[in-house]
Amino acid sequence: MHEVAALPEPLRGESERGERADPRREGEGSAGSARSAVHRLQRHDHRAGAVEEFQSAWTEVLRAGGGKLCAHQVPAVWNGGGQDRRKCGGTLVVGGTRTFGMWFHLFCLFEICCVLREGCRRKAFGLSKRCFSATAAPFVASNHPRRSVLYMPGSNARAMEKGKTLAADGLILDLEDAVAINKKEEARKMVNEQVRKGGYGLREICIRINSLDTPWGEDDLRLVATSGCNAIALPKVERADQIERVNAILNECGADPKTEIWSLIETPRGILNADEICGCLPRNSCIIMGTSDLSKELNVTSRRALQLSLQMVVLAAKKYGKVVLDGVYLNVRDLEGFEKECWEGKEFGFDGKTLIHPSTIELANRIFAPSATEVEDAKNIIACFEEAERSGKGVVTYKGKLVENLHVVMAQKVVQQHELIEKMKGN
Fold it and tell me: Segment Disordered: which positions (predicted)?
């Protein structure tokens, strides 16, 4: 249950006196009328119909303020957990207390945020500081295996249907590079319908939207936000605020709080801002290398030329506990070269690889999974350590090597990954 502080004095005082905001005095246009609507939210009591009035008044706030939700700290029901520290105009809270009256129990753990858009300052809403302080439940990212994540064109219904039979851990239904400009709207509707239809079993379904800087990106996001997909892939991420904007739109659209954001880093600016990107929002749970675009930007052709960039992103992702996936291998007929790149990626610290052809799924699954020997060793390390603790031994060795707590933690991760992969079999 969230602990909610009282409303700021300027807003609470005026609403108790029943004063209406004057758009000419409080801010022109939408800001002034939004504040007036905010005051209506404060004037309700326990009378019948209060909930409906509250909902109606909040709709007016949204309409007057431009239709964007912003928050300082939003509970898990809105942003998938974690603390969202973007600047905003303060928050009206409905959840866990009786500050506003009876509907707090009906809207338990639900927050409604004041609306901001460009040009609407906090003073226009009568807010001098944020209204509350709350600690949201931590967002728990999926621990689903991502050894093989296959791109599929969002304009190809047959391919997306075939994806239901493939052994990939995940599918990225692509609305960006794989779709011609004149097919964007058609593909958007097709992907939305396909995901809602379901049938993908335990495979993770991610939808790559167009960049929000394009004419199609926001329409993509708003349509598929509630489709039931596991994640939204955001291309060409260079700054944290791009991720925050996607998060805000997902919240506004009422997306499942478990819906993740996967960020593609594929430009020099993105590489140099990898720490900022990877550290942005718990919901931003997976980082994908866009090696093709990065090679184009750097004007290089060899994998070796990308090594520094790859390792910078892996370091940043691991710093924040994010899953990180290697980029695609373009020569689908060169399975030997693909296998070599997979092993190299695993040694760099990647958790899996993005793919462009089904023929590469099996290899990626095998390479990015722990081997039978690794699983056996992991189980034995855990057993040896536990036995040593029970018997009071100070030093533990396995196959002649010292075993410390960090080795046990690594072994537990191997066993957990193996168990998750076994669960995927027969999917």
Answer: 1-42
C-alpha to C-alpha distance for 120 and 296, rounded to whole angstroms: 40
- Is residue 116 within 8 Å of 23, Cβ to Cβ? no
Amino acid making up residue 52: E
Q: Which of 232, 235, 227 is nearest to 194 (CA)?
A: 227
| Share in percent of the chain as helix, strand, coil (round to 5) | 45, 15, 40
Name which of 254, 233, 95, 216 is nearest 172 in CA terms. Answer: 233
Q: 325 and 387 share a domain?
A: no
- Torsion angle of C-alpha atoms 10, 14, 20, 22, degrees rounded to 10: -30
Distance separating alpha carbons of residues 177 and 180, to the nearest angstrom: 8
Range of the domain at 304: 148-367
Q: CB 138: neighbour CB atoms within 10 A?
A: 12
Helices 335-348 and 307-319, packing angle to 10 deg: 50
Which one, of 25, 57, 56, lies nearest residue 40 by Cα? Answer: 57
Among 343, 367, 391, where does a domain finish? Answer: 367
- Final residue before a domain boundary, out of 326, 345, 367: 367
